[in-house]
Amino acid sequence: MSKKLKAAIIGPGNIGTDLLMKMMRSDWIEPVWMVGIDPESEGLKRAQEFGIKVSTTGVDGLVPHVLEDDIRVAFDATSAYVHAENSRKLNELGVIMIDLTPAAIGPFCVPPVNLADHAKNLEMNVNMVTCGGQATIPMVAAVSRVQEVEYGEIVATVSSRSVGPGTRQNIDEFTRTTSGAVEKVGGAKKGKAIIIINPAEPPLMMRDTIHCQTTDTPDQAAITESVQQMVKEVQKYVPGYKLVNGPVFDGNKVSVFMEVEGLGDFLPKYAGNLDIMTAAGLRTAEMFAEEAEAGSIELPAR
Amino acid sequence: MSIQGKKVTLHDMSLRDGMHAKRHQISLDEMVNIATGLDEAGMPLIEVTHGDGLGGASLNYGFPAHTDEEYLSAVIPKMKNAKVSALLLPGIGTVEHLKMAKDLGVSTIRVATHCTEADVSEQHIGMAAKMEMDTVGFLMMAHMVSAEKVLEQAKLMENYGANCIYCTDSAGYMLPEEVKQKIGLLRAELNPNTELGFHGHHNLGMGVANSIAAVEAGANRIDGSVAGLGAGAGNTPLEVFVAVLDRMNADHGIDLYKIMDVAEDLVVPMMDHPIRLDRDALTLGYAGVYSSFLLFAKRAEATYGIQARDLLVELGRRGTVGGQEDMIEDLALTMAKEKGLI
């Protein structure tokens, strides 16, 4: 029997397609279904060309096939509005849901920080926060695991071309969700998030600045070591995650300057903000598969 | 072109854009005194917030001496005639900040985006219009794109509910012809009821001339700052602009001597450095860089030994936009490494 977990992707847009391309290389996850609502969509056609089964009637078109195809994990790359229903229908059938929308009905997941805990607890719905969160929260956590962080602040600068209409219509959701996760996952007592959209051509690579205010004088050597370790952890699933400058120390302020280059699977390389979401989502599912294979978790009985 | 008899609504920036020049450290007393002086001089609108707008308090832009709530609560009850406005940059401030400002008595909200990214302002402009506030769409760094692009973005904001659109020269880069072209196209194509505004910076010494050009082309709201207190070489100095409007017989409603006195007696003594066109401020205007980068670049020069001018020119070349202050230290570190300074 194959150790790979079989998966469905909901939402055949840019994110869903990029995820599919990454998944086809995975040792742990096998893409089986792509779910959309528009039979004419480019993403569904492309998935079909890759030999993936497609539903053109949303999650309802997938549900009757979940058990016979042994679908164990689903990735939702649609919108916050429909995620709750998608999740309910699939969780009922024992499918683990990786939420790439801002719905956040399950706990936040930032792989190098708390994925292991979620996998051990067999969380049936985990949320991937935001692109800015995936890129920056590992750095906040790298400082907060050394010493108390009174305040954590992140600034994500992304290219205009990489920001879709959903994010634009509700940009407050980005700042709210990300600042919440800087606290809950990053470990800062108080969090703040800022997003800047830059229209320069050629498009700029995703840039992130992370500032942490420590309660006591920062232990420079320990923090530098911790940050460098954490960068390596993220590079395991996002090779283009790069420490450009820092950590820089100014009183109790610790600043780290990052750049995120994507793999360029389906999304362009400058869209590291989108790449880090799909890569983190896939890494999350892989960890569940690894834990199931190792026997440390028991997938829902079928 | 004559602007004789034309009504011009002035909007003071010294307590918001001026916060940049004061590293956001204006005291509550200073705020109240200056706002009171402006109110007595007949200033109809006064902006009060962190330099980067509501929610701007941060390590990235600087923590202010007091919160937006404290500043607004101190100033608004003291105003006899003047109304108070607040700036909001989506991505930094949120709808919650907007509601807070409204509850404290802010009457005008100005939702600011980069000149190509107006579609991030829909929820904020929509909410402000729904609450029946005077709602302004504020298109920053408007020198970076064509008049047609500014119009396209202005129409989005107008559709979301803005009753006034600003063409904002955040870098102080524009010359009067460009101002006329941009404001003229907006005037020709937007709803005739939509008001138009111009916000200038004095980095090429064109603040007053550009503001006059804007009025000639159809703008009726002009931003400026008493004694020029603002980012870069400051905003259009309001007392100067009032004198010029006076000479042109425009209808501005301000007492010239009173506003001169606010500038000279209250604002100038409070300045940390003279607001003038030094070489770095001039570089902002010449290279088309966001004015509030000035003090950050000077600090980076002091810390890392890279000339502020070199940093600003490179930031301009990279097409940085408002809010990217974090790139200044990042770039200084990279350049210092390349030069073997660190």
TrEMBL record, chain A:
<dbReference type="InterPro" id="IPR000534">
    <property type="entry name" value="Semialdehyde_DH_NAD-bd"/>
</dbReference>
<feature type="binding site">
    <location>
        <position position="273"/>
    </location>
    <ligand>
        <name>NAD(+)</name>
    </ligand>
</feature>
<dbReference type="InterPro" id="IPR015426">
    <property type="entry name" value="Acetylaldehyde_DH_C"/>
</dbReference>
<feature type="active site" description="Acyl-thioester intermediate">
    <location>
        <position position="131"/>
    </location>
</feature>
<keyword id="KW-0058">Aromatic hydrocarbons catabolism</keyword>
<protein>
    <recommendedName>
        <fullName>Acetaldehyde dehydrogenase</fullName>
        <ecNumber>1.2.1.10</ecNumber>
    </recommendedName>
</protein>
<keyword id="KW-0520">NAD</keyword>
<feature type="domain" description="Semialdehyde dehydrogenase NAD-binding">
    <location>
        <begin position="6"/>
        <end position="121"/>
    </location>
</feature>
<dbReference type="GO" id="GO:0051287">
    <property type="term" value="F:NAD binding"/>
</dbReference>
<dbReference type="InterPro" id="IPR003361">
    <property type="entry name" value="Acetaldehyde_dehydrogenase"/>
</dbReference>
<comment type="similarity">
    <text>Belongs to the acetaldehyde dehydrogenase family.</text>
</comment>
<dbReference type="Pfam" id="PF09290">
    <property type="entry name" value="AcetDehyd-dimer"/>
</dbReference>
<keyword id="KW-0560">Oxidoreductase</keyword>
<feature type="binding site">
    <location>
        <begin position="162"/>
        <end position="170"/>
    </location>
    <ligand>
        <name>NAD(+)</name>
    </ligand>
</feature>
<dbReference type="InterPro" id="IPR036291">
    <property type="entry name" value="NAD(P)-bd_dom_sf"/>
</dbReference>
<dbReference type="GO" id="GO:0008774">
    <property type="term" value="F:acetaldehyde dehydrogenase (acetylating) activity"/>
</dbReference>
